[in-house]
């Protein structure tokens, strides 16, 4: 997935596809390319989203990092935390994903963020957990196979220990 933030193209994996081995090979190759560029001090010409950079560096990712590549979702999640009346929004602990298969057809699936999440209402008392689960799903769980392939490619070229010397801004 690519999006534009402040006129900068940002890249981050997207969960909209049912990925096969071939697609994951592209993420591995991208990671390998990034690792080589880092090792040789080259500029790649594209930017990764802040959470992705932090994941590569083994640094913690927070909700505020989401603002850098998806400001609207970030604002909506923060709004939930700061306001009462979440019960009236009809939220539950699930997300709907539209997946595209290898043959190009689409299907919509419901993914529970917690066990039986589609049956658990979002309320004021559990809104912090809702925001945390939704954030974790969007940043990690929904794209875990893509992120793992990317990391495998980077770490094949540059050991994770060497990356500890960088921060996300330096890596970008």
Automatic annotation (TrEMBL):
The keyword Membrane does not apply. The keyword DNA damage does not apply. Keywords: Transferase, Ubl conjugation pathway. Residues 13-172 form the HECT domain. This is HECT-type E3 ubiquitin transferase. It comes from Pythium insidiosum. GO terms for cellular component: cytoplasm. GO terms for biological process: protein ubiquitination; ubiquitin-dependent protein catabolic process. It catalyses: S-ubiquitinyl-[E2 ubiquitin-conjugating enzyme]-L-cysteine + [acceptor protein]-L-lysine = [E2 ubiquitin-conjugating enzyme]-L-cysteine + N(6)-ubiquitinyl-[acceptor protein]-L-lysine. The lineage of its organism: Eukaryota, Sar, Stramenopiles, Oomycota, Peronosporomycetes. It is an enzyme of class 2 (transferase). Pfam families: HECT (PF00632). GO terms for molecular function: ubiquitin protein ligase activity. Pathway: Protein modification; protein ubiquitination. Its EC number is 2.3.2.26.
């Amino acid at each position: 997935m690519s999006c534009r933030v402040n006129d900068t193209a940002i890249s981050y994996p997207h969960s909209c596809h049912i990925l096969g081995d071939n697609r994951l090979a592209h993420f591995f190759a991208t990671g390998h390319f990034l690792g080589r560029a880092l090792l040789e001090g080259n500029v790649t010409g594209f930017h990764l989203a802040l959470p992705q950079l932090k994941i590569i560096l083994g640094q913690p990712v927070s909700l505020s990092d989401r603002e850098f590549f998806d400001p609207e979702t970030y604002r909506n999640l923060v709004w939930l935390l700061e306001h009462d009346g979440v019960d009236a929004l009809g939220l539950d602990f699930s997300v709907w994903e539209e997946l595209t298969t290898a043959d190009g057809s689409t299907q919509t699936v419901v993914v529970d963020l917690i066990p039986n999440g589609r049956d658990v209402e979002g309320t004021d008392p559990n809104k912090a957990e809702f925001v945390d689960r939704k954030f974790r799903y969007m940043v990690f769980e929904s794209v875990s196979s893509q992120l793992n392939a990317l990391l495998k490619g980077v770490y094949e070229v540059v050991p994770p220990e060497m990356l500890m010397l960088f921060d996300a801004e330096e890596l970008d």
